[in-house]
Each structure stands twice: as structure tokens, then as C-alpha cells.
Amino acid sequence: MDSGYRTKKRFGQHFLHERKFIDDILAAAALTGDERVFEVGPGLGALTDYLVAAAHSVDVVEFDRDLVARLVARDDANLTVHAGDALALDWRKILVSPPYVFVANLPYNISSQVLFKLIDCRELFSRAVLMFQKEVGDRIVAGPGTGDYGILSVFCQYYFDVGRVAVIPPGAFRPPPKVDSAVISFVRRDRPRYPVKDEELFRRVVKAAFSQRRKTLRNCLRANAFPAEGVEQAGRECGIDPARRGETLSLQEFARLTDVLGRLAAEINDTERNDS
């Protein structure tokens, strides 16, 4: 590690140094020289060095002021440094020429939040190659009926084609973390895997279904303000037993359930307006 810089634990800094895994990330990013790249948490620039050489332009976001100064001092013509919190910055304002390829070894302490922001700003990106703690990576790629399957799994797989690129041991970082890491690739779909009429309702349904993992779908939806009768009727129409747990539902089942619940709610509203 560069002797002139001491890592700061509060920023979740673990800098990748082993070339093999940097090559794995670059291979998955498949840069041809024309892409605009976005990186969060570049650290000492081990990955940035290769991104700058391989891409048309690179925009990086760094929170640590000491590292910001180092990045600016590089004076690379195709490197733009944004100082600040990646979660607070408006990505739509700083990434002005989409689509971008998002490539990053994400700081562990903000990786899940960054992922949700990627989902919300997905129109800015054609694809992404991101590193997480292995347990987060496992949740992203998990399928229905497994212990890792949850909100991250559903939302990521709904909007992206996801795949595991590599599992990286602690020794590939300085300082080494206490856990393995995983590199995950995301390719944005032109449209969601199973389009629904109301994506906000889809998110509500999914979050509700996983709100209490040990409870049934029926109880989870009721506890999150979905009317009991509507839940039962939607289950019958969709062929989904409300006694199942949310973790057993496929993306297609979540989409179908969302549309039926949305239709039933609209019918109730129409009836109430006509009666008033």
C-alpha cells in the first residue's frame, strides 16, 4: 500500500491490489475505448488506472478529501473527479452523457445503498460491474426458495440480468477485510423482466412480502396495509396460496400479484366514488 496514506476504517476502505482480480473486473466490464465509465470509491486508484486507459472518459466520486486531492493531482485529461458522498450527489446532474458503465469496488458500508441508487438511476447505465461483500453478492443472484433470496434479489433481477464474476479472498485487499468479496455483473434490460402496470406498487408488494420472513404472505401483506379480502382474492386469481412465504415467490408471481392487487384496489376506489 502507498506509505503516504493510511486507510480510514469509518469509510469502509479495503483497497484491491491483486492484478488477477482487477483483470477479472475489467474483462467483465468489456470496455472497448468508446465507453463513459462511472466509479464510486476509487481509493488509491488501482482500478482507476486501468479504467482511464481503457475508456473514453471516467467520472469518479470520492468522499475522502485526502484521496480526492490525489485523484485531482493525477491530471488525467479524461478523468473527472467529483468530491462528495455518492449517496447524496445527484447522479443525473453529474453524469450528463449517458449511457455509462458503472465499475467499482464499492465501500462496504454503503454498497447496498449504492445498489438501490443504481436501480433508481438505471437509465444512466448500460451495465455495471460492482464488488460487494460476498453475502450481499449472494443475495443479489439468489433464486426463489433460498435463504439468500430477498428484496435485493427481486429488484436487481427485475431490472437487470445479473451474474457472478468472481469471489475474491481477503488477501487480495489492503487492509484485508474479514470476509470474502464478490464481483457481480449487471446488464440493464430494455424493459423489466415482467412489466407491471404500477412499478411503485410492485416495490410495495415485494417489500411487504419480505418484511417478516417467517410469516406468511397473507400476514405480511395485511401488516403493510393491503386489505385482507383483496389479498385473498388476488391469491385465488393468481394461483398463489397466501399461506406461502414471500421468499418462495418468483419474479413472475410477484408481478402477477401486483397487477391483480392494483386492479382490485382500483375497482374498490371506483365503487366508493360511485356510491358517494
Molecular structure report:
This protein is α/β, with parallel strands linked by helices and 276 residues long. 42% of the residues lie in helices and 19% in strands. The chain is built from eleven helices and nine strands. The strands form two sheets. Strands 4-3-2-5-6-9-7 form a seven-stranded mixed sheet, sandwiched between helices. Strand 2, helix 2 and strand 3 form a beta-alpha-beta unit. Helix 5 packs parallel to helix 7, helix 8 packs across helix 11 and helix 10 packs across helix 11. The longest helix has 25 residues. It is elongated and about 70 Å long. The chain starts with 14 loop residues before the first strand and ends with a helix. The mean pLDDT is 93.
Overall body shape: elongated
Task: Compute the average pLDDT.
Answer: 93
| Secondary-structure-derived class | alpha/beta
The N- to C-terminal Cα distance equals 71 Å
What are the low-pLDDT stretches, counting only 5+ consecutive residues below 50?
none
Q: What is the helix content?
A: 40-55%
Strand content: 15-25%
What are the secondary-structure elements, in order, as H or E? EHEHEHEHEHEHHEEEHHHH
What about the largest sheet?
A: 7 strands, mixed
Secondary structure tally: strands: 9
Q: How would you write the strand order of the largest sheet?
A: 4-3-2-5-6-9-7
**What Rg do the Cα atoms give?**
21 Å
Number of helices: 11
